[in-house]
Amino acid sequence: NPADRVSYLCAWLALVPQGLCVVYATLIWSSREIEICLMFAGQMACEALNWVLKRYIKEERPREMHGKGYGMPSSHAQFVSFFSITLALFLLFRHVPHPTDTHTPFSFTGRVLLSLLAIACAGAVAASRIYLTYHTPKQVIVGCGAGAGFAIAWFIFTTYLRRAGWIEWALETSISRMLRVRDLVIQEDLVDSGWARWEERRKRQMLQGPGKKSR
């Protein structure tokens, strides 16, 4: 409804999964972090699970919605639930950054607040599916539950891969070395490592600058 500002906002919220896929692709290409690759792999596996569930349950969308495809569970709700819960689990239980000369990382309280913000945003996306009558409340709730449950299972699985040494083994393979895949985001801020290197190089250039000019 063009006259309904809430529905207009909900229409934009419907684009969040597509936007997150762009974020995934950008971070994977720019950082080559294996943790982000694992998260994206889990996200795609969660999407595959949604595809299977919809065709197994075969529940139609609300009658007010004249669209195609089954509605149970909501793929949007499942997508954002997986993302927000996985991000929260990572921030609270796996990400332990260390302070540097140029950066002070988020405290545990800050990471809790960031996790709650991500979950709240996911809730807004899920609620928009009900407001726009694309899904029934039950379809959205089941989608949120499926996404959250799969996120917890995926986090346990990737924790096992780390503790069993499979991640270290994967990083030593020739293809990982060729693609320069790394595993720094567990203990470092995603952007601080590059910033620290730039600061160090800039300071060296400033110290060497006068000497070069005198020659």
Automatic annotation (TrEMBL):
Domain Phosphatidic acid phosphatase type 2/haloperoxidase: 36-155
Origin superkingdom: Eukaryota
The protein's enzyme class: hydrolase
A GO biological-process term: lipid biosynthetic process
SMART domains in alphabetical order: acidPPc
Location relative to the cell: Endoplasmic reticulum membrane
Transmembrane segments: 6-29, 36-53, 73-93, 113-134, 140-161
CDD domains: PAP2_dolichyldiphosphatase (cd03382)
Enzyme Commission code: 3.6.1.43
Membrane-related topology note: Multi-pass membrane protein
Function: Required for efficient N-glycosylation. Necessary for maintaining optimal levels of dolichol-linked oligosaccharides. Hydrolyzes dolichyl pyrophosphate at a very high rate and dolichyl monophosphate at a much lower rate. Does not act on phosphatidate.
Protein's name according to its UniProt entry: Dolichyldiphosphatase
